Amino acid sequence: MTTSSGLTAIIGGGIAGLSAAWTLQQAGRACVVLEASDRWGGAIASERVDGFLLEGGPDSFLAGKPAAVELCRELGLEGELIGTEPQPGGPRLLHRGHTRQLGDALIASGRPFPGSDTRPQPDQREGGSNQRWPCHLQPLPAGWRMLAPTRLGPVLRSPLFSPAVKAAVIWHWPRTAAPPREDETVAAYLERRFGRHAGRAFTQIIVQPLLAGVYGGRADCLSAVPPSAPGDRPSGAPIFMTLRGGMGTLVAKLVERLQPCLRAHSCVQAIARNGAGFRLELEQGDPLDASSLIVAAPAWRAATLLRDFDAELAAPLASIPFSSSVNVNLAYRTAPALPPGHGFLAGGDSDLQACTFAHQKFSGRAPAGAALLRLFYGEALAEAANALIEAHARADVAAILGVTQPPDLVRIRACRRALPQYTVGHNERVKRLLAALERYPRLALAGNAYAGVGVPDCIASGVAAAARITSALG
Question: Which residues pair with 121 in a beta bridge?
Fold first, then answer.
């Protein structure tokens, strides 16, 4: 048995757990991070291959939420921070586009992918200087926030909406400043705020693709009441920031600084009380005794670990639903013709949720003259074979962008049960969790299932968990 007085055990080596360990280390507290796998960083995974910087998870973070920038500064990485590359047109939405289903047989057949007859052609009206793409990529109306427009004019000028929808928006516009008055779904909120006709149009055309791209969720399930404020970025600052060498740079620096307290291949099987502290049963090796505990594993995993420890604490954790996602990197040494911008949101009946033109979004993501596309899929493909996922991705870029040349490099990563769904009642579940935690001042939770799913939210949750433990230990 391993016994350590004053030791804080942290279960989970993702960015939340590592941030908690860093905060404790800076406060002079002893800690150990227990990670079941052989890698650190959780969803964050960066890989440099043949000059391409491939992200297997988040490629950036919101600059308006300060936790990530502050952590980079503490680690001496401030000089590595970069913003998005300037591109015309703003965010784009796939409008009246479609994707096509493919089977494994298509890969083996060697037949052209669907959409191969819709390659970009010179636009004769512009003397051949521009390109046309098989599907329409329309810009989002200026001033659109996550759930709703903030300016009437851009909505009325947008080709995304019919005259009937625009008339309904004008009729309901005086009430558009009204926030959600109670916990309700995003779809219900939009219908109440803009009327049934316009609310449904906003949901189907813009909001559902946005929610699918960020949360992997549905507008008729997700709550319209946010768990935390979005944060304000400094004037002139980019919306998104990342690190020059990829998001994995942040993880690598944390691992370097925390190395003595990191234990990989340390799967916790059970948590029990041990006086005022905790005893952790490990899959291999002796049990570990700790004075305090931070559970930074996914909520569904935390529920399993805490079920025998305190069923009342585990129940709300187990009730948080999760969805899965798949991201596909397609790298081309010779860049195909692509529209301007950072990519587009999909939606509709397509399995595709979004596509990022990574080489146009951030500098240093591909060699000169090359291109790197990242495609994002949801639950439907999470358990599919890689060959089928690749077939979907190649069919989608052919049908939507006219890209029929085979990619020179493909990387596929499935993140199963990785995206918590903030459904109606989420904030009440979190309140019940916090109330149950009051019985255990030396126990804290961290991760993306409570007050935000982004990298800054996870970092902030780890920092807050460490502060709670520091306060309890005195």
Answer: 132
Give pLDDT tens digits for 116-165.
333 333 333 333 333 455 567 888 898 888 888 989 999 999 988 999 99
Residues 183 and 276 in one domain: no
Let me know whether 327 and 252 are in one domain.
Answer: no
Q: Is the pLDDT of residue 420 over 80?
A: yes
Indicate the number of domains in the chain.
3
Which CATH number do you get for residue 170?
1.10.3110.10
Contact 463, 470 (CB under 8 A): no
Structural domain of residue 457, as residue ranges? 8-45+54-80+242-321+423-473
AA identity, residue 307: R
Residue type, 145: R
Number of neighbours of residue 260 by Cβ within 10 angstroms: 7
Q: In this structure, is residue 277 part of a structural domain?
A: yes
d(CA 343, CA 94): 10
Distance CA 78, CA 97 (A): 40
Q: What is the pLDDT of residues 52-89, one digit of tens each?
A: 999 999 999 999 999 999 999 999 999 999 999 988 76
Indicate whether 3 belongs to any domain: no
**CA gap 188, 462 in Å, rounded:** 33
Lowest mean pLDDT among 73-82, 166-175, 322-331: 166-175
> Which of 80-94, 95-109, 225-239 has the weakest average pLDDT?
95-109
